[in-house]
């Protein structure tokens, strides 16, 4: 399988359950190793990096938006967004607040996840994925838990992110994601089809 993510492009990867979408996303995000072949990020091979080096690459160059958000329930929205920076010397509170404002949550900075709707939680997760200014954003079912209007708002924000030069890969069952993507590929039984 050969798959390239371009900066500034949103690619939707669609396919039935069990087709390998999540496995593909995990390989792109350096969470899983391919059994054969290689994975490159911006032209650099990354599959043979040590665990520590892979962690550094993920932290510095890859943003993740998980289907189930993975927000810490006791932290506020701004604290959840800042979480990936907790081991860095700089204070990212202002950037976290700016990102939350950008995704329409400037009035929810101090709210905990149980005080947010599903769409708001998804937008917190998107803001968190951008805190380290990634080169690539990987989104697992970015609209999976959302109504259509909220899904469209999230996809508008994903397109804005791509317009800023970030390559975006969204794996999904949702046809709406394909409508918003610059390119859609289908993954069936581990085989990509353009």
TrEMBL record:
GO molecular function (one): ATP hydrolysis activity
Entries under PROSITE patterns matching the protein: ABC_TRANSPORTER_1 (PS00211), ABC_TRANSPORTER_2 (PS50893)
Keywords annotated in UniProt: ATP-binding, Nucleotide-binding, Transport
Pfam family, any one: ABC_tran
Domain ABC transporter: 1-194
Originating species: Halolamina pelagica
GO CC aspect terms: plasma membrane
Protein name: Putative ABC transporter ATP-binding protein
SMART domains per the UniProt record, alphabetical: AAA (SM00382)
């Amino acid at each position: 399988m050969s798959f390239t993510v371009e900066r500034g492009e949103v690619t939707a990867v669609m396919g039935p359950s069990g087709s390998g979408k999540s496995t593909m996303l995990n390989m792109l995000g350096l969470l899983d190793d391919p059994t054969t072949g290689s994975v490159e990020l911006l032209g650099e091979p990354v599959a043979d990096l040590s665990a520590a080096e892979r962690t550094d690459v993920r932290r510095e160059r890859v943003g993740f938006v998980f289907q189930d958000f993975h927000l810490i329930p006791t932290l506020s929205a701004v604290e959840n967004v800042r979480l990936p920076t907790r081991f860095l010397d700089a204070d990212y509170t202002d950037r976290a607040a700016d990102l939350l404002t950008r995704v329409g949550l400037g009035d929810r900075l101090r709210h905990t996840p149980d005080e947010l709707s599903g769409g708001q939680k998804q937008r917190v997760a998107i803001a968190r994925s951008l805190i380290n200014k990634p080169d690539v954003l990987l989104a697992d079912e970015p609209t999976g838990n959302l109504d259509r209007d909220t899904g469209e708002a999230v996809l508008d924000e994903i397109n804005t992110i791509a317009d800023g030069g970030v390559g975006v890969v969204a794996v999904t069952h949702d046809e709406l994601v394909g409508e918003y993507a610059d390119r859609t590929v289908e993954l069936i039984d581990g085989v990509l089809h353009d």
